[in-house]
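>> received
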Amino acid sequence: MLVLSRKEAMSINAPFYNTGKPCKNGHVSDRYTSSGHCLSCKADWESKNHEKVDSYKQSWAQRNPEAVRESVSTYYRRNTDERRAYSAQHYLQNREDRLAKQKVYRQENPEIYTAAKQRRRAIELRALPAWANHDLIKEKFALAQQLSAETGIPHEVDHIIPLRGRNVCGLHREDNLQVIPASENRKKNNKFEVN
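>> returned
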């Protein structure tokens, strides 16, 4: 623990300081340089007044949507790998439950599911050039089924450059297809990263 006075913390633009002495409530913890308030006291107050704090945070977020978007965006940029790892772990832990819910949803809303399938098919047709080799494309799908059966791990045919990418759109042709595990395909989604 680095012992600093508030004045010293201000001179070096440190957000926190610690005098090594207890606050009026007996906490020997960091304090905010801006206000001099003890972090432990603040945490105690917030835990006792969590409804008030939540209400304030919600109203602030409603008044400042741009700041919220920027904060979330910054957080995701700084924690990309951790978020991806968490998402992959969450997907694997909840896969069966999610698939069951999706199946029920598809059965209860066939028109939405059919529309989505038709939209996907239309995109593929628009992205299917006349010079595409249909036999090689079929071989990729056959390979995916074969690998799924042999390994017990579901495999899918993935578009290397997505048909509906954010920055670029690929074609539905044999040299833009790869067979990968379904879990990898879910992680990739509609993203295309240049190496």
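>> Residues 131-195 form one domain.
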